[in-house]
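Async update (no meeting this week)

Hi team, since we skipped the sync, here's where things stand on the single-chain job. The sequence we agreed to prioritize is pasted below, unchanged from the tracker. I ran it this morning and attached the output directly underneath so nobody has to dig for it. Comments welcome in thread, and please keep replies under the output.
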Amino acid sequence: MAENTDDWQMERSMSPRAYRRAITALGLNQASAGRYLGVSARTSRRYCTGDTEVPVAAALLLRACIAHKVEPLVPVWVRGDN
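Output:
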């Protein structure tokens, strides 16, 4: 896995196992990872199970956060009529 090396940006695909390891390393659960990536919790779960392929941009973002020790800022969704 490329997360802890200098060539993290060369690996374009991300397996479900690598996705689960990446979000765990960043202190995220499936729902918060989904919010961070701009997708639903259900889509994040599908990344974890392999039902949906992790997009290249999401894989690179997660790997960049790990490589550069960046703590993700996860938006809080508020229900309301705003």
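Quick observations from my side:
The chain has one domain: 8-67.
The CA atoms of residues 31 and 65 lie 18 Å apart.
Reply here if anything looks off.
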